[in-house]
Amino acid sequence: PLVSGVPASPDFTDAPAETGSEVFADFAPALGDAFARARSGGRELYGFANHELTSTYVGTSTGLRLRHDQPNGTLELNAKSPDRTRSAWAGRATRDFKDVDPAAMDAELAQRLRWAERRIELPAGRYETLLPPTAVADLLIYQLWSSTARDAVEGRTVFSTPGGGTRLGEQLAPLPLTLRSDPHAPGLESAPFVIAHSSGDSGSVFDNGLPLAPTDWIRDGKLERLTTTRHSAGLTGLPVAPGIDNLLLEGGGEKSLEEMVAATTGRALLLTCLWYIREVDPATLLLTGLTRDGVYLVEDGEVVGEVNNFRFNESPVDLLSRASEAGRTEKTLPREWGDWFTRAAMPALRIPDFNMSSVSLGV
């Protein structure tokens, strides 16, 4: 049956919300200053700033009259050396551009270009690796998309067990990490009810308007929930747990990524971001992809140069089980999935043996 009994949105009959250039009123001058600083510093700065405001109305024959206005803004900046041999990227997600600091982003990019002045070639292999929040977000968003209960019960995913069971209740991470979604998370607010444009294993149009509640997917390292529609919950006997349009990983320490770099003993790699992520094996959630816009070598707490790019082969589920340190959770923009999923908050993760499976060309 269609959802019913949900109180109507008081603004259901109002016109759709609109954004405009005024959202950039304070941001645009600061961005202009950042471009000027980049030019004076011998850097080429490129970028893209976007803001949209989407109004969604849900009306059904059972009386639903719901509305949600979703602001969504992104900023991506890319700095290059004049000869185009060095490149660095930074991105931010925002609701209104009031929390975006172009000067700080330009300073971050300038530092990364300075690191890249020394080039070091490394072979493929397993390296201690510091994954920044954007890379962690890209990996765990794919994990969330792959965590449908029906597929797990039917034995098709990394969350399946032999005989038709699931790994619910299993300890996935030794660190006390909690992966959760909450439509009311400050700064990451999303629709408080189901909005489904089509039906599949992860969502159902028959659930449109179903109220959403904060949901822990992993709690203190233990698998707590798999995504379900009302229909798949009935088939599997699991609680109803629809997907929510944000994702947070919490429970790490208070160190920033910079502090985690400084605390590194021996040799490690520091990534900027990941891209071209594709699934290799759903049974293990093995993913492959490439590093991009800067991989840096850390030796005894100091970045000593830039190394070549790599192709990686890793499963986010395995990474959680092997992570030796998690930093401070902060809002981040996924590089790979930023066109579809922007509301994320993640810590940096230290992985003792990240699998760089082959050397990749390009910047």
TrEMBL record:
Pfam families: PmbA_TldD_3rd (PF19289). Residues 125-357 form the Metalloprotease TldD/E C-terminal domain. InterPro entries: Metalloprtase-TldD/E_C (IPR045569), TldD/PmbA_sf (IPR036059). SUPFAM superfamilies: Putative modulator of DNA gyrase, PmbA/TldD. GO terms for biological process: proteolysis. One of its GO terms (molecular function) is metallopeptidase activity. This is TldD/PmbA family protein. It comes from Streptomyces parvus.
